[in-house]
Each structure stands twice: as structure tokens, then as C-alpha cells.
Amino acid sequence: MHISEGVLAAPVLAAGAAATATCVAVGLRKMDYERIPQVAILSSAFFVASLIHVPVGPVSVHLVLNGLLGLLLGWMAFPAILVALGLQALLFQFGGLTTLGVNTLNMALPAVACSLAFGPLVRGQSKAVAVTAAFACGFLAIAASGVMVAMSLVFTGESFVAAAKLVLAAHVPVMLIEGVLTALCVGFLRKVSPEVLEVSLNATRPLPR
What we know:
This protein is mainly alpha-helical and 209 residues long. It has one domain: Arp2/3 complex 21 kDa subunit ARPC3 (Orthogonal Bundle). Helix content is 73%, strand content 4%. Strand 1 (53-56) and strand 2 form a beta hairpin.
């Protein structure tokens, strides 16, 4: 889902950068010293998973794991994804620095939204409900990211409408794979380390006013 340099219009880039900066600030406020190792590990997992990518027009198709990051990190998924995408842009020229804000927003915002929607079910008493909710979280996080990538292209110009449709179609298999991976990870964590899921609840709660 990396959008390359020189594709998006300036207003889209500016809006994405501003929204990402705001959300990263929220994520950093929620991050304490005890959570930094977990954020770093999950950022590394995102970095490695999304290195294997297939170019599709102006974007690329790859594993994202944003549904899982959202469940485990909440708002802290924003700084985790931002760091990973920044390193990929600098080291491997995936995406780019000008599109860093838009790319981060497209992957991290669905992660947080899905964690808010499905997190309580994942942390519930029923394992069947938790695993099903985890699948939905992984599936819909990728679906929402695909829609946001498509919208970023469409807002840039009508010439990208065909590419936007291709992006959505190409990510259907990724949606299924990510749903299964997220469900498997949640099932494993509930069995061996349920406190990891419980601790992440604090990362999705709104900030006190």
C-alpha cells in the first residue's frame, strides 16, 4: 500500500501529513517507557512483513499487519507505522518521504478504528467470539486501508480512477490472509500471554481532558 513519490497532488499530501502528525502526537502521549519495547518489536514486524511487496500501478501489495498492530498498540500504532515506513523509504525507496504522511494515515487510521470496534470482543470471555472478531479486525483494517489508498488516488485526479479500482481488487487476497493471521495471533496470545491483550486496552482509551 505504499504510494510512490510524485503521484499524489499537493493538497492530498498536505492533508495526510497534518492528520498523521496529529495522530502520532496522540500515540506518543499514550506511550510510556514500559510500552516502548513492545512498540519497537511490532514496528519491526510491520517493517519486515511489508518488505515483500508486489508493485500494482502506483502502489504496491504486501502484508501490513495493521489490524494486529491496532489491537496490541491502539493509538501507538501511528508512531510504530510511521517509523517503519520512514525507514523503508530511506533504506529501500519504498513509498517516499513526501508521501510518508499519507501512507502512514492510510495504514494506521484503520488499525486504530478497528481496534476500537473489535478490541472489546477480542478481550472478552468467549474464545470463539474473540477469534472471529480478530479475523474481522485484520480483514477490515486492510479493506479500509485499501479504500483510503484508492480515495487518495481519486482525490488526486480522475486519471487514477482505474488504478484505484485495481488497488481494491488486488488487496482482496491480502484481506483474507491478514484476517487469518490476526485470528491466529490472537488465539495464541489468549492462550500463552493474555495480559498482552489486556494491557493494550489502555492504548485505545481516549485521552483524559
